[in-house]
Amino acid sequence: MDICFQQGRLTDDDFKKFSALIFAKTGIHLKPEKKELLNARLGKRLRACQLDSFSEYYDRVVHDSSGNELVQLINCVSTNFTSFFREKGHFDFLSSSVFPQFGKKGGSTAPCKIWSAACSSGEEPYTLAMVTALYMARNQSFRASILATDISTKVLAIAEKGIYSMDKIEQIPAELLRNYFQKGVGNCSGYVKVKDELRRLVTFRHINLMDAFPWKEEMDVIFCRNVMIYFTRETQAELAEKFYHCLAPGGYLFIGHSESLTSIGHRFQQAATTVYKKIK
């Protein structure tokens, strides 16, 4: 009999153990109603590992000294919905209100450092790159670099390739498509690829936001959108404080339109809808 018919279901105890492990490692809080979703997603991993039970898989994860199976677990539970120019108002505010401030710093040539802190499959950082490239074309002294990170190695691999199906690019204006994407032909028909000039603005790295950030330099802009909704209030407050310390004075934090810092203690000043500024 095929192993998929032998596989048991995720019990309440199994769910509690996996939920605690996922929270400890990622800060993601799985509510009880997510049990069936976790059952389905981890079930695929059980079959890949040829295991019969979720308890066996839990033991595999916690005893894997390489950490590779933990990465696979995180890949399974990460939610990665995204799109180009999602919540477009943020990008308008960036180019109209944030970028001009860097031209008022006494002729400093230091690049504006932008961090897409949960970049998923790359749509957000490449949108940031398009907005940045357009601004640099109009303002020759302006420079910027973009760091794009995610906890999921699976989506990072997609992002680094920079290849998207036609249905993924519907929100990109035609002029930007012509300037920054290469249309596929032959076997690649129906796909586009990000051009090298845009890719050079973005550096991708695997980072867990619950860990210490592995750099010392301050960021000027952080996009961490539609991520904190999966965290507890305490974890949200901890992450907001980490972002505050990571930002340079005058730097900006962008969060998702469904999110707010109102219910947690923070030291930011609100600059626009779901946009916060570090004053000191």
Specify the biggest β-sheet: 7 strands, mixed
Helical content stands at: 40-55%
What fold name goes in the CATH topology slot of the largest domain?
Rossmann fold
- Reading off the top of the CATH hierarchy, the class of the largest domain is best stated as Alpha Beta
What is the total domain count?
Answer: 2
CATH architecture of the largest domain: 3-Layer(aba) Sandwich
- Low-pLDDT stretches are 1-6
Separate helix tally: 11
Task: Please tally the β strands and state the result.
Answer: 10
Strand order in the largest sheet? 6-2-1-7-8-10-9
The end-to-end span amounts to 65 Å
What form results from the Cα inertia axes?
A: globular
SS-derived structural category = alpha/beta
Which strand-content bin applies to the residues?
15-25%
Helix/strand order, N-terminal first:
HHHHHHEHEHEHEEHEEHEEE
What is shown here, in short?
With 280 residues, the chain is α/β, with parallel strands linked by helices. The protein contains 11 helices and 10 strands. Helix 3 runs antiparallel to helix 5 (68-77).
Question: What can you tell me about this protein's structure?
Answer:
With about 280 residues, the protein is an alpha/beta fold. The chain folds into two domains: about 5-75, Chemotaxis receptor methyltransferase CheR, N-terminal domain (Chemotaxis Receptor Methyltransferase Cher, domain 1, Orthogonal Bundle), CATH 1.10.155.10; about 90-275, Rossmann fold (3-Layer(aba) Sandwich), CATH 3.40.50.150. Helices cover about 40% and strands about 15% of the residues. The chain has eleven helices and ten strands. The protein has helices spanning about 5, 10-25, 35-50, 55-65, 70-75, 90-100, 125-140, 155-160, 175-180, 195-200, 235-245; strands spanning about 110-115, 145-150, 165, 180-185, 190-195, 200-205, 220-225, 245-255, 270, 275. The strands form two sheets. It has a seven-stranded mixed beta sheet. The protein has a three-stranded antiparallel beta sheet with strand order 3-5-4. Helix 11 links the parallel strand 7 (about 220-225) and strand 8 (about 245-255). The longest helix has 16 residues, at about 125-140. Residues about 1-5 have low confidence and may be disordered.
